[in-house]
Write a structure and sequence with these properties.
Length: 300
């Protein structure tokens, strides 16, 4: 297979640009015989003549003109690749793309990003909001380097770094019968219509897990709607569609007309996690973001 190296191409481009072997040698700070040898080797490797000497000028042949166009592109790409990789060594700038479920995306990541931006203003963070299952899957597939979720899966490829403890609460209209108490027993909740997050949501996964721990099948719930965001859940409750189980973080935003109730007989504690892939090398920007998150402590 025919091959040539970047050094040969760089010399060839310089000769064509300057129309001179001697000028190219001067610019590249090498000897003219060295330039000649490299051009001869390049021509031998490709099997065509690339440079004609005409009236003391070095002019490209038709093949040389075509190679010149490609060679300039190859060298530009090579230089750009070097700059990018060198940037990894020096840790300068860049974008950090993370996946996140709704609650950490709305209530934790803004604080982490603010701390990160203060320390590394040359970097930027892009957040893709989805459910916990999909966010974790993105890290497992190496589509993104980090995820922030409210559920934990067993996967040897992944590391789950606990960040903030959360608990689930019941949200109900202020006029609802359950709203007369500060807490609610699970058996009471089963008697009322429920608005739930979609399957894959960390909130739903933890609630259903807590039900099973209490000896109750999630199938016994009177689910009247499944919605894909916490905001939609709260609006549905406000409209009188039913009651809902949500994070204490989201419960801070219930506003007038809604009340929050703790569970009196159900353990609904959970953690929010930062997820990384043990088989994925993080960019310098992503590494620094992880450091900032780990050092930030409990932002609740």
């Amino acid at each position: 297979m025919t091959s040539f190296d970047l050094h040969q191409l760089r010399i060839f481009v310089e000769v064509v640009k300057e129309k001179s072997f001697s000028k190219a040698a001067e610019n590249l700070m090498i000897s003219q015989p060295t330039v000649s040898v490299h051009i001869q080797n390049l021509e031998a490797a490709l099997g065509v003549r690339l440079i004609d000497r005409v009236s003391r000028k070095a002019l490209p042949t038709e093949a040389g003109e075509r190679l010149f166009r490609y060679a300039r592109l190859i060298l530009r790409l090579s230089d750009r690749a070097y700059e990018v990789i060198n940037g990894y060594k020096e840790g300068v700038g860049g974008e950090v793309v993370v996946a996140s479920s709704t609650i950490p995306g709305n209530y934790l990541l803004p604080l982490y990003i603010a701390l990160f931006s203060q320390r590394y203003p040359q970097c930027r963070v892009k957040v893709n909001i989805t459910d916990s299952a999909k966010a974790i899957s993105k890290v497992a597939k190496r589509e993104v380097p980090l995820a922030f979720v409210g559920a934990k899966y067993s996967d040897k490829r992944l590391e789950f770094h606990p960040l903030v403890e959360d608990s689930l609460v019941v949200v109900a209209p202020a006029s609802h019968p359950l709203a007369q108490s500060k807490s609610v027993a699970l058996r009471e909740l089963l008697a009322h219509p429920l608005v739930m997050r979609e399957e894959g949501s960390g909130t739903r996964l933890r609630f259903e897990e807590a039900l099973r721990e209490g000896g109750i099948s999630p199938a016994t719930l009177r689910v009247v709607a499944e919605l894909g965001s916490t905001v939609a859940i709260l609006e549905a409750v406000k409209a009188g569609l039913g009651v809902a189980v949500t994070s204490k973080f989201a419960a801070k935003d219930v506003g007038e007309g809604l009340v929050c109730l703790d569970f009196s007989d159900l353990n609904v504690k959970r953690w929010f996690y930062m997820v990384t892939n043990t088989r994925m090398t993080l960019s310098p920007a992503a590494e620094r973001f992880v450091e900032v998150v780990k050092k930030s402590g409990d932002v609740a």
